[in-house]
Amino acid sequence: PTPAPAPSYAINFASVAINTNDTVTVPTGYTVDVLLKAGDLVEAGTAFAPGTFPTSVSQTAAWAGGNHDGMEYFELSGTDPNVGGLLAINHEYPDLNILFSGASYNAATATQAQKEIVLSAVGISVVEVAKGSDGKFAVKAGSRFNKRYSGNTDYRVGGPAAGVIGTTIRGMLNNCASGRTPWGTYLTCEETTNNYFDPSRAANGYGWVVEIDPYQELAQPTKRTAMGRFSHENVAYLSNASNRVAFYMGDDSTPGCIYKFVPADAFSTTNRAANTNLLDYGTLYVARFNADGTGEWRALVQGQNGLVPGAVDPGNVSQSTTPPAPVTVNFATQSDVLINCQSAARVAGGTIMDRPEWITVAPNGQSIFVTLTNNSGRRVTDAPNPRVQNLHGHILKFRENGDSPLATGFTWEIFLLAGNPSLTEANLKGNISGDYFSSPDGLRIDPQGRLWVQTDHNLTGNAGTLSGAASNMVQAFGNNAMFYVDQSTKQSKRFLVGPTGCEITGIAYTPDLKSFFINIQHPDGNWPVSGQPPRSSTIVVRRTDGQPVGN
Ligand code: FEO
Ligand code: CA
Ligand code: CA
Ligand code: CA
C-alpha cells in the first residue's frame, strides 16, 4: 500500500544565522547524517582509505564518484518509500583529493591509468538506501540496484544525431543536475560539450541529456540527442491529463538560453517499456522573453525559424556593447541543429539569459521557476536580465499559456533579484526580504508547493563594496547555503549553511518529507571526517522529533 503523503504543514523553523563555520549548520531540533561520501563503496570492492591513493581504475570503479550534484529519489515496489528507496546521484567532477597525491590532474600529461581513474569519478551512482532503527538512512550494501555509470561506461545514442555522432559513446561527463521522467527513469545532464579529461575521444559526444533506468529494466543508458547539445544544467517536467509532457532545460553558459522538449507522443502510465524511446521523437523549442511579460517558444526545427544553410548567428550580444561579428552556420539537417544547439537557439531568436541553472515546476503546474545564477560579464541588459555586471543573479518565474505543456506562449516575471542590501552599489543590493543570498543555483518546489533555493557563489569572487571596502562573496554572504522562500511574501529563511569551500546542491526527499537528501559539493576544509581529506557527500537532514522538514 502506498503510504499517505505528508499532511500539509506551514514553515516554522528558526532561520540559521549566516556563518563561515566548517560544518553543516541546520536549525535547532534538526540533525545531519552523512550518507555517501566520495570514495565510499557503491559496488563491491575496497573503499577509499586515507593515506593511500589508487593506481588503477579497478579500485575506483566501485566507489561513489566526486562532486555530488543533482539527484532523485525513486520508490521501490514492495518497500515503504518513507523508509527505503533508490537514490540516483550525479557526480559532476572527481574529488581529486582522494585520487592523486597532490590532487592535480593534467590531461596533456596524464597516463592512461590516470585518465581512467578520473573518468571513473564522474557519472552517476545508484544506491539503495534504507532507514535503520536509529532513524538514520544508510546505503544497503550488496543491493542488486547499487550501480555506477561513469566516464568509462558505454552509452547508446538515440534521436536524430545518432547516426552522425555514432551509435555508442564512451563515457558521460560533468553530470551536473538532473531530472526524472513520469515513467520513473533518471535524466542526468552533461554540462560540458567536450571531454577535457581525455580529448582524444569523439567530438560531439558530450553535452547531452542521458536517460538511465535506475531499476535496470529498460534499454541501456542512452544519450537523447533530440533534447539538444549544450551545457545542460537540469530537467524538470510538466505533464497534462492526456499524458503529454514538456521537459524544461537550462543552458548554463555565459550566457545561455532556456529550452523545452515536447515528445511527439503521450507517455504510457500502464506499460513502462512503451516509453523506452519516447525522448527520441519530438520538438525542441527555445524561449524568447518579450519585454511586455509575454514569451514565445520557437521551434528548433531545421527549415523553420531561420534554421537553414547559410543562417546568420548573431553571436553572444549580451557581453559587450560592441556586437560580435556574426557567423554563418549551415543548418542542413536536424542533427546540425541539435549538435550546434546554442547557435541554433540564437538564430531562432532565443533570449540569452544570465546563466540558467535549475528549473522547477510547481505541483499545480501554474508556475515554473528558473535560477539565473549570475553573469558578471553582462553589459547589455533586457527585461528578463535587467542588471549589468549581474554578480548575484536572479530568479525568474513563468507560466505556460493554459498551464499546458504544449503551449507555444507563456507569461513571465522576475521573482526576485539576489544581492545584499548592505552593499553600496545599487545594482548589487537585490530585493530579497529576510535572509539574503547570492548566486541561486539549485532550486526545487516540494510536493506541497514550497520553494527551496540553494546557492553556489564563487567564494573568493568579488561581491561589491561593504562598509566602504571591497568584499568577497564569503564576507558578504557567508558560506553557501539553502533557503526557503515564500512565494507570496518572497520572505527568505536560511535553512542550512554548508561547510567551508562548498556549494549546496541537490534536493530529494521521502514522500513524508521527513528526510531531505542534500549534496555538499567540493568542501575544502576538514569536513566531513576530521583529519581526512575533505570529501563531497550526500547528507540526510531530518528533525530529531520525527516531524517533517521545515515544519
Ligand atoms: Fe554544474 Fe551549472 O552547475
Ligand atoms: Ca549548478
Ligand atoms: Ca553554479
Ligand atoms: Ca559545481
TrEMBL record:
<dbReference type="Pfam" id="PF05787">
    <property type="entry name" value="PhoX"/>
</dbReference>
<protein>
    <submittedName>
        <fullName>PhoX family protein</fullName>
    </submittedName>
</protein>
<dbReference type="InterPro" id="IPR008557">
    <property type="entry name" value="PhoX"/>
</dbReference>
